[in-house]
Task: structure prediction
Amino acid sequence: MGNSRSHLGQGLSSQFLPEEQAEIDRLFDALSSEKLSSNTSPRSFSLQALKNHVGEALPSEMVTRLFEGMRRVDLMGKVKGPSENVSQEQFTVSMSHLLKGNSEEKSLVIMKMISATEGPVKAREVQKFTEDLVGSLVHVLNYRQELRGWTQKQALGSLPRVQVLAAQLISEMKLPDGEKLLGPEQLAHDCDRAVIEDWVFRTPHVAVFLSVVIHRGFLLHLSLDLATLIPERQVDLGREFASILDVLSVVYINSHLPGEWRHRWRLLFASELHGHSFAQLCGLITHRGPCVMLLEDRDSHVFGGFASCSWEVKPQFQGDDRCFLFSIFPRMAVYTCTGYNDHYMYLNHGQQTIPNGLGMGGQHSYFGLWIDFDFGKGHSKAKPTCTTYNSPQLSAQEDFRFERMEVWAVGDALVTQPAKSSKSILDVDLEAQSLLEISGRSRHSEGLREVPEEDQ
Result:
């Protein structure tokens, strides 16, 4: 195709590079050649032509939203209503705004995708758009077989995780009076262009999800790196393992990790596979680099924490201010460091005078998240919030019991895994040692021992 930029209205231009513009033109040629597209000049395409092209890759509702956003782009500032079909100029400008534009340009098209009326949209309309967007993301990744080992998880209780993540994204929106959209009583509020633009600017997931939906839904051959969005799932075991996490939970948590650790998650410990043993937990997660830990309590609350440094068994606090706590269900949220103290991580075992267990945030006997050495119970205390992470109570009950726990190492495996002592954590837990031997399991920390000086 020729240079589309020369056809665009004043002040509206394509931000694509020449090779990218050629791909956009190729897609338009395919859409406008559909039998149901307009045969008049200039060429354009219809909603049915777009649906035929996309097929089952995207839900019909999202295809319609994208089409409406494109056809209602006003190239010349005309006051008359939108055209029936999408012209090449409208298509190019819309794609340029959504894929390459700033928050102002993105919000221009998103407003038209949310509602067919001009002017402000209702908060409930934004909520429905966000749920459609999150649902479309999971749909297209599953359809294109790009979940990278993760799964779609069914609803917990009565609230699907699509709605849980959508609610989190919506909660970042600030209404004109400065309040955040936190409850159903605020869904009747008007959201004007400035509110949507601010929301898109401060909530990057919206633009990222839209980009993935467009790239994978339309099969655009443009650069899109999914590795930092969805980490590769590695489970080095000979049987299937169903994680507590689904792909949306992973996408959300992964987006808060430092960039160098987002491409791969490796399972270190799962209570379903390794048993309910604190000694086993310590033997498998220490000296393994940054980790994501999560639990599901008996009330189906899912929560956990990110440890930015290798876990070590010692009576002192460890870690740094990159650590955070998080909740997955019934709400999604991440709670970062306040700077109040440095009680980021704690792991101890075999001591008689100080607490034995794994903790993050707060203080002894009052952790933001605590797993007791008597495996299967813990606490999440916050009155009103944890001092280290400003997190609320994460579990359903302050003192909780749990059946499932997982720990995932993130990023590349460490080249070396030094052990600071010749004594394994299992050496101080003879019961766990015996159970491992009876069950035929290997002692994973055995290979981490230093050679005693007398044997050198």
